[in-house]
Amino acid sequence: MNNKPLGYTYHSHTKRCGHATGEDEDYVKKAIEGHYEILGFSDHVMLPGKSQHGMRGDYSLADGYFKSVRSLQEKYAKQLRIYCAFEAEWYGDAFKDYYEDLLSSGKVDYLLLGQHCFLNSEGGFTFYSQVSDKKKATLMYVEDLIKGMESGLFAYVAHPDLFMIWYGDWDAFAYQCSVSIIEAAKKNHMILEVNMGPSRWGRRNGGGEEIDVAYPCPNFWDIVSEYQLPCIIGVDDHHPNELLDSPFDWVRDFVQKHNLNYIDRLKIDSKYVK
Ligand SMILES: [Zn+2]
Ligand SMILES: [Zn+2]
Known about the structure:
With 274 residues, the protein is an alpha/beta fold. The chain has a single domain (8-262), classed as Metal-dependent hydrolases (TIM Barrel, Alpha-Beta Barrel), CATH 3.20.20.140. It is 36% helix and 16% strand. The chain contains ten helices and ten strands. It has helices at residues 24-33, 62-75, 96-104, 134-151, 164-167, 172-187, 197-201, 218-227, 242-245, 248-257, and strands at 8-12, 38-44, 81-88, 110-113, 117-119, 125-127, 156-157, 192-195, 230-234, 261-262. Helix 4 (134-151) runs parallel beside helix 6 and helix 6 (172-187) packs parallel to helix 8 (218-227). The radius of gyration is 18 Å and the shape is globular. Bound molecules: zinc ion (ZN) (2 copies). One zinc ion is lined by residues 87, 114, 116, 158-159.
């Protein structure tokens, strides 16, 4: 194997989020170099009236994001199908209308459900990983994720097994939470994403020895396999080069080993992309 890129990703960031680097056009150029057919920009959602530095761009950057992606879409239409999207948390009713408007106005082509944090009582953000009671954090995560799936606004669930980052152990509780997520996905006809993020940054410990990544969590995906739910891979790149040098053979092997019901295209209803 030669680590050939997959040819698509619907999960790609831009420098606006504050923890990614590179110009938008560089992502496009790398995708073309890697013979991608599809590049979906899905930066962390910019939210009116909210700011969360280092995690998402301020809302004032949203228009520039839409314009930049749409102009690249036009410029490179012959070489690559480019989508404009957001990776967004479900925050209950707080941003439901906003998400609906993003989709119905065609500002974005789709939304990915990527649950990282929740709105706390002061109206700020708390990452689930910051909650000291790890079981409580996981239950909150599962509940928010399921409500997001039920909203019907999302094209797929990004890194559904993210909770393994803070929960860590595969035990009866982790198993039960996984089953809850997977059963909700089945009921709501959701596609689940095998996320490539940690396969780049989480494969070695401080001493440099190879370790299991927190996600994709093999035990979680064994259950997904039993349910035969559709799954897709997300590169979740935060640098243009990651479109070329992420461990694609590793993730292909993961999908195969777990006998997953793998799909590599989404049906996207876009005003701009044919
Ligand atoms: Zn994410
Ligand atoms: Zn992401």
